[in-house]
Amino acid sequence: MDGKIRWYKQGQALLDEIRGSKPNPNSAHIWFLGQHGFALNLGGETLYFDVILNDFLDAQGKSRRCFDAPFGPQEPQKADYVFCTHDHSDHLNLETLIPLAKACPKARFIVPNPSRDKLIRAGIDESRVIGAKAGEKTSLGGIVVHPVAAVHTRFIQDEAEQDANGDCTSLGFVIEADGLKIYHPGDTWVTTALVETLKALGPLDIAMLPINGTDWMRTAEDCIGNMSAIDSVKLAMAIPIDLVIPTHYNMFSNNSENPALFADYMYRLCPWKRFHISALGEKFIYEKG
């Protein structure tokens, strides 16, 4: 044993499962792909969110990942839409996106508008890259995308990071399709503005909430944080969410959290609310009650 976390399902078996999965109406199939990455089958489309399929090497050439990638970005696969929430290497990484664009020639990429040029300069055709702006919804076939401002690299109450044009550099996305609303927040703290925005877009069926938080040591090492486990639980209490999936806790040992802590807070603070802790590569089926 090499000490790495093991996948429930990976490689070709996982790719075949994602490709062949066909959810019933008012349901979604979800696979946790590590860190903040998810594959989602919804409304007849396959969506990727913050999927990272490349390695990260330290100064000695050793992998920094606590588990291998589920499959290679160059592998034939079905990805109709690829969402990247912000330009950090564990969410938007050209080592994943360039070969993925070649493997999925019909896939379109949805990124915060300030990140759009980065993908185009890397060789992804501009017709395939959508620059998202907070508050400006976009229709992608039968899917409606609601970009939501995220506050990530610094905590300033209700003020999201913006570029010179006033566009948010970090976003979350509420996806609306087939009778469901699913929220992938990217990396964000909880702010009053976020709560009010999600209330207006809700009720939400599923939210994938980061739990890694931060601390003084990680801050000193320029490791940028998120909402903590208790923050995510309190957000789930503050807005109508049917099911919470904790995320962003397992890829790097220096920026991790035990999801059992999240589960403990859920049991103690809101035992009436549903949650699911996913194994890597596990197919989770959500059906609207």
What does this structure look like?
Helices cover 21% and strands 25% of the residues. It has 289 residues and is α/β, with parallel strands linked by helices. It has a single domain (11-287), classed as 4-Layer Sandwich (Metallo-beta-lactamase, Chain A), CATH 3.60.15. Helix 6 (229-238) packs parallel to helix 7 (259-269). GO terms for molecular function: hydrolase activity. Residues 62-249 form the Metallo-beta-lactamase domain. It comes from Leadbettera azotonutricia (strain ATCC BAA-888 / DSM 13862 / ZAS-9).
What descriptors fit this protein?
289 residues; alpha/beta; Metallo-beta-lactamase, Chain A; seven-stranded mixed beta sheet; 7 helices; 21% helix
Q: Strand fraction band?
A: 15-25%
Query: Please, how many helices?
Result: 7
Please give the radius of gyration in angstroms.
18 Å
CATH architecture: 4-Layer Sandwich
Uncertain residue ranges: none
InterPro entries: Metallo-B-lactamas, RibonucZ/Hydroxyglut_hydro, UPF0173_UPF0282_UlaG_hydrolase
GO molecular function: hydrolase activity
Domain Metallo-beta-lactamase: 62-249
Organism: Leadbettera azotonutricia (strain ATCC BAA-888 / DSM 13862 / ZAS-9) (Treponema azotonutricium)
